Amino acid sequence: MADEKLVTIKQANMTNNCPECFNQDLTLSFFQKHRYGRLSHRTTGEVTHQLVCNTCGSTIYPVKWTDDIERTFEYYQKMVMPEKASLRFTSLFWIIMLVLIVVVGAGVYIFIKRDAIF
């Protein structure tokens, strides 16, 4: 099964007030999902975010966001440039493909030579 990892693509410190402890030490992080398998590495277009207060350590969900936090979030969201969704094959994939091509080629060669003899 493929491993999924969230790769940080942007992190920003915000000076908005935390809805929990009212301190001005927030960190907004944007993540992009990557899937790693034995045969391929896929970069998805899915971007997620997380807002954490550095003072009280709580995760602040969008339900508790104030208008100031929402405006700041929209600003940073426009600045995020995720990688393009892509698919890259690993060396194991290319080795398996090469072996399959050689086996099919050898089978065709043997089939042609056998018909030429009879």
Notes on the protein architecture:
- The chain has 118 residues and is an alpha+beta fold.
- It is 34% helix and 35% strand.
- It is built from two helices and four strands; from the N terminus they run βββαβα.
- Strand 2 and strand 3 form a beta hairpin.
- The radius of gyration is 25 Å and the shape is rod-shaped.
- The model has no long low-confidence stretch (mean pLDDT 90).
In short:
This protein is an alpha+beta fold and 118 residues long.
Defining traits:
transmembrane helix; transmembrane; alpha+beta; four-stranded antiparallel β-sheet; 118 residues; 4 strands; membrane
What can be said about the biggest beta sheet? 4 strands, antiparallel
Order of helices and strands: EEEHEH
Radius of gyration: 25 Å
Fraction of residues in H or I helices:
25-40%
Distance between the termini: 49 Å
Biggest sheet strand order reads 1-2-3-4
Give the strand content: 25-35%
**Oligomer type:** single chain
Number of domains: 1
Task: Characterize the overall form.
Answer: rod-shaped
Poorly predicted ranges (pLDDT <50, ≥5 residues)? none
Q: Roughly what is the average pLDDT, rounded to an integer? A: 90
Structural class: alpha+beta
Number of helix segments? 2
